[in-house]
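Section 5.1 Outputs to date
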Amino acid sequence: MTHMHIASWIVALILLFVSYGLYSSGSAKGAKITHMILRLFYILIILTGAELFIRFANFNGEYAGKMLLGIITIGLMEMILIRKKKEKSTGGLWIGFIIVLVLTVLLGLHLPIGFHLF
């Protein structure tokens, strides 16, 4: 299940950049399609993350923190695309997204089912 969760995140990040690029280029139809596919991946990420949380959490606060950061990351991804679609500024959201994404990945690698980098 861990591999599916990680693969879903990678595909979601790719779809985020593709959708953002399509919104930037003015291709509304293509952007809408990739945005909807991305939303399906949000659901897959949340379901696989919830399964991992239930399986490995043991009421550990780090897992709850990682889950909260992951949900915030998904929220920022959606907010970036919606603001781009409405042709509003996304600079601050990108900075927040990158910070939260890095924290989420580092915490995920630190947890017992992740890699031990530090």
